[in-house]
């Protein structure tokens, strides 16, 4: 039996969760505000805390930050709860040391699985003084944004939040247009290096004979045209983050030199004997399959080991359909604000957006919304306005219902989730294990979601 504190100002939810935890054999404490939660924790020991984001007075993140600053309470596992998950609150919670971040409602089986993970650990993860200091008293950054409400993107956001507390090298993979550079920016902004520079280098866009000078710099007279000394991008990134985009396109000779930088953390500009120490965090990204390139002798295996310390995969948009409409609404709001217009999507337009497979991913979606915002006669964006989105589409039987435009965001996400699960089950011929793999969730999570949605 564990002692678990539930902090939520929603009486019905708090009491319902308390009843579930009591049925599972645990002792339950309750608090309806952040201040009451801190009082309860100082008055008695809790083995775990379920903490809502939105609270009267101190909000959930402020309470979590107070706990992480208290030597007696910093190791208590905290599960953050929210009715509406965003990239900001997910990343903010994870970087402050939350054990998990869940979206309401929470199923019984999910609670059982979560508590098993919490209490099976020999020692709950603690935040060190080194990790705490950069974020003490700071608000959660809201720019840039890695938007997404799907389970797949929630997982990415949690991974980013955890990775932000370290200086380990990160390798971001995913198709073109999935937002790899945005993810790198988010990671930088959430890290202790946020006040340092973010330096991006596209390894595929710079000619091979110029890439070494671009990265390492050169001395005066190092080669024809080198009239002055120049610091390279690696030195420019000192105390910050170096983002190496399309690392899979880096020439083999440069791969060896980059490996040396990662190992020794110093740079020698071309044509000089100076060794310049650098303090950088390296984040690399690629749309290529680096394992296959290693097998083909096109990429150094030792460099891949150095880069792939923390792997982060961004799923294509077609595998997270639940994100399409929220992203489209976000891009539309930005585009109409700059254009001084008021537009909205018709039900038919929503169906086309959800049914289109988006081979260009988020980048294609953003460009499509900017295009239609400029050309649509308005105020309603119709299916005809989006007729330029051609190609194979998802089966209409998995499209959103006709009353989608009248739903709240929570109801809309639930409808999309239901459609995605139904589609995955159909593609898997009813095999739930295969359907769970297609959705990128555990089989138990699929069972729980099917039960909550009334799917058989």
TrEMBL record:
Which GO MF terms are attached to this record? ATP binding; sequence-specific DNA binding
Give the GO biological process terms: phosphorelay signal transduction system; regulation of DNA-templated transcription
**Which residues get modified to 4-aspartylphosphate?**
52
The name of this protein is Regulatory protein AtoC
Residue stretches in coiled coil = none
Q: Which residues form the Response regulatory domain?
A: 3-119
- Keywords in UniProt for this one? ATP-binding, Nucleotide-binding, Phosphoprotein, Transcription, Transcription regulation
